[in-house]
Amino acid sequence: MNRKDWAQLGKGLGFLSPWLIGFFAFTLIPVGLSFYYSLCEYSLLQKPLYIGLDNYRQLWADPIFWKALTNTFYYALMALPSGMMVSLGLALLLNADIRGQAIYRTIIFLPSLVPTVASAMLWLWLFNAKLGLINNLLGKVGIEGPGWLTTPEWALPALAFMSLWGVGHTVVIYLAGLQDVPRELYEAAEIDGARSWRRLWHITLPMLSPVIFFNLVMALIGTMQVFAVPYIMTGGGPTRSTYFFTMYLYDNAFTYLKMGYASAMAWVQLLIILCLTGFSFWSSRKWVHYQSK
Amino acid sequence: MQRIKLVFSVVLALVIVGVLVFGPRPGADRPKNRVVVSYWEKWTGNEAEQMKQIVTDFNNTVGAEKGIYVEYLSMSNVNQKTLVATAAGVPPDIAGLWDTQVAQFAAINALQPLDELAAVHGINEEYYKRVYWEGCRYNGKLWALVSTPAAVALHYNKRIFKESASKLRAAGLDPDRAPRTLDELDHYAEVLDVFDNRKRVERAGYLPMEPGWFLPHTSYWFGGGLFNPKTQKFTLTDPKVLRAYEWVQSYSKRMGKASLTEFRSGMGGFNSAQNPFLVGTVVMEQQGPWMANYIEDLKPKMNRWVMSKEEEKRLPTVEQRRANYEWAVAPFPSAVSGQENVTYAGFDVLMIPRGARHPKEAFEFIAYVNQQGPMEKLCSLHCKNSPLREVSEEFIRNHPNPYIDVFETLSASPNAHGIPPVPIWPEVNEELGVAVQKVYLLEATPEAALRESQARLQEKYDRFRATQLKRENQDKVAQTR
């Protein structure tokens, strides 16, 4: 590199520096430190005490860790497929060329604009066993609704059901993807006599598969990190039936002041998400179709 | 277009310069030549405003005289913020936290010991009710002083007792007084319960899980405890603790889990007009002295049963005033005969975080709050009892809670218990909360739930102590080098 190149590099780095400083100071260094702390007993105010892999060993033997992890997986198993299917179904319906299309799209998107705390409070009332709208409606058809958030058997499914409230964002992404499917493919299929179901199965879904894949990965990361809604609505109860991984991590860090243990949990969480995302990428070779290929 | 851009830029620049030159300055209202003491407090709303009155009193009197100015900031999540600020080396001079943080923060070296400063001001254990003084200490040192205390007692609805008088009498119970033993409480509760034709609870005489805040401490009323400081062992499998949890479960068994779950779902929040005690769907409950203030705010009619407030104020004695209240307070009955005035006494504290810049001046304020006059003013405003041994007659006479003397007696009792001196208390509290949930939801037998909690908590505590020991040894080695 000559002098001019160095000068240009300097200028480039100078312009990049706000981001670089932010990235190093608030992301890379804390992430690196969190790994070191995961090998320590650390309470923020005392010097970190190096204990090797003890935190990870303790995690392995900690029944609450396994309970929180299992709850998170159950939640993901319920919320993820249902969320994907409902949002895709809604997007397909909203893509139909009907009168008032824009109004319907707005209505579907509106709940996503409601702040998390407000929607949690709203759903607390909806789920109320005695006064809630859901049990009242069920009562009208002769079904006695359960205590949605107050019984351990129903609290987790209730939260998974509630997660459908926020599918508006995903629907919008699907809608954008649907606009991108070339019309000529449908025309060709119609000429060949393909009915709507076949057009959906052989054109829409394959062409939409990159979008489905994107939404799947984002939803996977989101559900593995679920926190705010159960924290507000159930606080992890009853009897830890809605106590999720991130809630236990938060409690360890900020309530019990066990920063080392919480850091170890964060690294385990990263590893799990990495594995699941990696698996999704590996499997995507078989079901995701890109137009350029 | 160019001109619009230019005008816009000039206006924007003028606004920025104007804000910089004439805008608000932090600490502009601080008086000069005074040491500024920063005070972070957890209370928000009314309680924050009431504490502000005490701060203002201090700044106008002792503060002005000694050249100290307390800068008061009320905030949420104050414990976490204090901890982070302390770790960063910029803590407040005073932190208003909870008793649950005394041992936890002291153990991790987040606080400054107050023994010497307290001695200078003549503050010692003679000055405080035992339970509060003990709660401020950990490992032989003083780490905090009280801001406002509380004690727990039985609150009962006199109107419903009166309306159900014939039923209560038929069951051999006196409708004009509170239950005196735990068996009697259960009996009263059973008579006062109301079920609909589908056997669903419509009104509960008593429910251990309402409000349920003090459930982890239930064993105190059974003569048990949670932790033995001498052996450093939890005592959750003690038969007395087991009896307490069995008693909690007996309510779910008697009233039906599904029915109770539905009933409790329909209850309003504590700080709402639908509070079950206020609407009369729960007749008796465990509460603290603050309840009188909440009733006054949310359902003032309950504090004006017979006459207006003006007429009530003209009555010469507190006993006469009590007739104007639809509710009454009595010590929560004990399961052990002869064990009287049992209570759980939690409290709020003022601490000086490690690294605070003005500890001496900060303690001047803490000591001021703990003087009888300011303390009684604050406790009256917050509707709480006093933590001090000496209580003035005016305090009792003019207190917004006409039953404050009950709380005074309870908190001064030898059977008043605080939280045990365990630095991992937040984990203990969480674990006991889950155990009690399992018990009243009939998910586990009391024995199984307590055995599980005992094993888990003891292991956590032993590990905590082992780490502390290792740390101390390391520090010793480092010092000798």
Q: Could you characterize the architecture of this molecule?
A:
The complex is a heterodimer of chains A (293) and B (481). Chain A is 73% helix and 1% strand. Chain A has 293 residues and is an all-alpha fold. By secondary structure, chain B is an alpha/beta fold. Chain B has 2 domains: 35-151 and 345-417, D-Maltodextrin-Binding Protein, domain 2; 153-343 and 421-462, 3-Layer(aba) Sandwich (D-Maltodextrin-Binding Protein, domain 2). Helix content of chain B is 48%, strand content 14%. Chain B contains 22 helices and 16 strands. Chain B has helices spanning 2-22, 45-60, 62-66, 78-87, 100-107, 115-120, 130-135, 158-163, 165-170, 182-192, 239-255, 257-265, 276-279, 291-298, 309-313, 318-322, 359-369, 372-381, 393-398, 404-412, 425-440, 446-480, and strands spanning 35-41, 68-74, 94-98, 137-138, 141-142, 144-149, 153-157, 194-195, 201-206, 227-228, 233-234, 282-287, 327-330, 343-344, 347-351, 416-417. In chain B, helix 2 (45-60) runs antiparallel to helix 18. Classes of the chains: A mainly alpha (293), B alpha/beta (481). Chain A binds chain B through residues 41, 43-47, 49, 51, 58, 63-64, 128-132, 147, 149-152, 237-240, 251, 254-257, and chain B through 80, 83-84, 86-87, 104, 108-110, 258, 261-266, 354, 424, 426-427, 430, 433-434, 437-438, 441, 443, 456, 463, 467, 470-471, 474.
